[in-house]
Design brief:
- This protein is 13% helix and 39% strand.
- By secondary structure, the protein is mainly beta.
- The protein has one domain.
- A five-stranded antiparallel β-sheet has the order 6-7-2-1-8. A five-stranded antiparallel β-sheet has the order 5-3-4-10-9, with no helix packed on it. Strands 11-12 form a two-stranded antiparallel sheet.
- A hairpin with a 6-residue loop joins strand 6 and strand 7.
- The chain is globular and about 55 Å long.
């Protein structure tokens, strides 16, 4: 049976993106596959030496260090504005923007965290 293709203009990326505008983006595929649409906040973790950033998604209104998760109005993705974290780490987003493979890690006393390892761009290519 033929089905109408309705995923027009959606990003079928199962990676996490870092934008030049101080944000971490969650394209449609990642967003839907990992049920990000069910969360209101992101809590960030980082390792300054390895340049790893971890994101824990939560609905805990009492979490003190949460970032508001922005959802696309059509439910096709989301993002976190992370300027304070990148500034703290002295990371210029233009130098690190791109698509990143992620891995899920269990963080003690927190739960599953999605982790990316930042890589500096040279000539618009991630190294």
């Amino acid at each position: 049976m033929l089905k109408k293709f309705e995923s027009i203009n959606t990003k079928q990326e199962n990676r996490i993106t870092v934008t030049g505008g101080y944000a971490i983006g969650f394209p449609t595929k990642f967003y839907l596959d990992n049920n990000i649409n069910t969360f209101k906040y992101g809590v960030l973790f980082y390792d300054e030496e390895s340049l790893e950033i971890g994101i824990y998604f939560t609905n805990d209104d009492n979490e003190k260090f949460k970032y508001i998760l922005r959802h696309d109005t059509k439910g096709r993705g989301g993002s976190l504005a992370v300027k304070s974290l990148l500034k703290t780490l002295n990371i210029v987003p233009e130098d690190y923007k791109g698509k990143y493979e992620w891995e899920k890690r269990l963080v003690r006393d927190t739960g599953d965290v999605y982790v990316i390892k930042l890589k500096k761009r040279v000539n618009k290519i991630l190294l």
